[in-house]
Amino acid sequence: MNALVALCHFCELHGPRTLFCTEALHPPSPTPSQAGAPIPGDRESDREGEGLTMRANSSATQRGDMCEGCRSLPASHPGFVSVDSETGIRFLSHQHPRQPQLFSVVRQACVRSLSCEVCPGREGPIFFGDEQHGFVFSHTFFIKDSLARGFQRWYSIVMVAMDRIYLINSWPFLLRHLRLTIQSLQSTALKVFDSEQCVCPQRAVRMNSVFSPAVFPHQRSGNAARSLPSLTQHTNLWASLHSSFSWLLKACGSRLTEKLLEGAPTEDTLVLIERQTEQEEEMSCWEGAEGGGTRPQCHQSESELYRDFLFDEGKAEGYPGPKFRSLRHLRQVLGTTDFRQLAWHVLMGNQVILRGADPGLIHSAFTMLKALLPVGCVRSVTYSAQYEEAYRCNFLGLSPDVPIPTHVSSSEFSVLVDVVSVERGSLYSAACGENILSLYQFNISSTNSQPTDKGPTLLNKIEVALSNENLSVDVVSHCLLCLKEEWMNKVKVLFKFSKVDGRGREDTQKVLALLGATGPGEEDNVRLLKFWMTGLSKTYKSHLMTAVRGGERPLSQ
Predict the structure, then answer these.
(1) Does Magnesium show up as a keyword for this record (predicted)?
(2) Of 273, 304, 487, 514, which one has the greatest count of Cβ atoms within 10 A?
């Protein structure tokens, strides 16, 4: 992380001063001629241990005349260096940064954090800065001192970085860990303060002494500015702070990573995220009721979410026997006519029932067919021992002995595919291997038989892509994604126009013509669009309704 951490102090004699500063130095990128050359100053002792190793720096920093409270390290101390053995980054700690431009930046952050940029109560976090001088996360706090004015001294820990977004996103992390460091300093100093007060209560001494404004800073035993190690009685305080600040820079830099996003998230991604959030909330409620600990959340990428949705985390791989490898493979096995009929039922939202003895084959068929629909339109029961109603699932797998209710078999809103095993000899079956047609026969039955020359426009385009043998399976998959996204955009327009705006039938018909949904197959196109409306994400619907209500509010006033 390109940032630095500094401990600042408001001295009663000299004002705001920087006490201790830790910065990260990234290793230079080696040129081709230096690729195998060792890094100057790199020694085996630097690599001892795991993670960060510490050693003294060889160059001492010249310091001017400062009081004890303004000085962190003695003039003879060279400072500290920690080396990250994984990345080669070096964390250097001195009283001031080495680079002059950083010195002025830290100096300004120190002055602002202890003067004008303070939060209510003067203790707590605050954020300030600009593009020129960098952005600062500052946390001010008090340390008890029996000899200080008001029995306390004012300090701050600042983190300076040029990346405003990164620093703001790291706010909870920085606040949590800086508070641990601050609480440790305050608790240690409080013990020293209490012990000194027991020996010599300063409040009574000050009330009985003669007040003189001219010599007030020097009246307290000539030691108006005490160092932080003397306030905490911590002899290795600076080495401890160096380790804490170095770890903070390392951990803060590795906790957030950048990811390239290609455009806005699709509706499928939004629906998958909503489902994952609902599952995590249900799991948290269940674990809370059981009294157990919370399970760590796992946030998946867009591609991982969609892959897990299609393949149900690889459940089909656990079944033996042949499986459908692609949508084109399914079309080849079923035949052009039967596949078109089955795909039509899928796109229209009818219930697709596969009944057979091979759950792996049925699962793989559903995996291919689910790719035809938006994620929000899919409700599947992969394999069941009893019939499930259409409102619960539009993809249903059944064992061969499960009867189909009469109202379902006679309905035009369902299609049944019976997967019947073909009686073959064991030697013949072993020789055929993955040949599905040699093992099974597929009988499709439905009271709604559509003409093969009609159907929704989307189905015609899908069949053109599947029938083109020059297109690979991956190309067909990407083509299908583009077609679904195109029709989901049409669904959004129709939803906004008809459901949100409440337009009439005549205006809706004009919009359908504009969307290219009229003409041949118009009835199927409209039915498809209406079914796909159910697959819109709650996020999109809520955003759309909020925007519309916000636009209507001024009109009502």
Answers:
(1) no
(2) 487
pTM of the model: 0.51
For the stretch 104-142, pLDDT in tens is 888 888 999 888 887 877 788 999 988 888 899 999 998
Instruction: Assign residue 529 the CATH number of its domain.
Output: 1.10.10.1730
Query: How many structural domains compose the chain?
Result: 3
**CA-CA distance, 329 to 331, in Å (whole number)?**
5
Same domain for 363 and 511:
no
> What is the DSSP code string of 142-168?
EEE-TTSGGGEEEEEEEEEES-HHHHH
Residues 411 and 485 in one domain: no
Q: Rounded to an integer, what distance in angstroms lies between the CA atom of residue 345 and that of residue 347?
A: 6
Q: Is the pLDDT of residue 192 over 80?
A: yes
| SS3 call for 239 | helix
Burial environment of residue 320 by CB neighbours within 10 A (0 to 12, 13 to 18, 19 or more): exposed
Q: Identify whether residues 234 and 98 lie together within a single domain.
A: yes
Q: Is the pLDDT of residue 469 over 60?
A: yes
Rounded-to-integer distance, Cα 466 and Cα 332, Å: 10
Cα gap 334→440, rounded to integer Å: 11
Question: What is the rounded distance in angstroms from the CA atom of residue 361 to the CA atom of residue 419?
Answer: 9
- Residues 474-482: what's their mean pLDDT? 91
The answer to whether 243 touches 38, Cβ cutoff 8 Å, is no
Cβ atoms 367, 354 nearer than 8 A: no
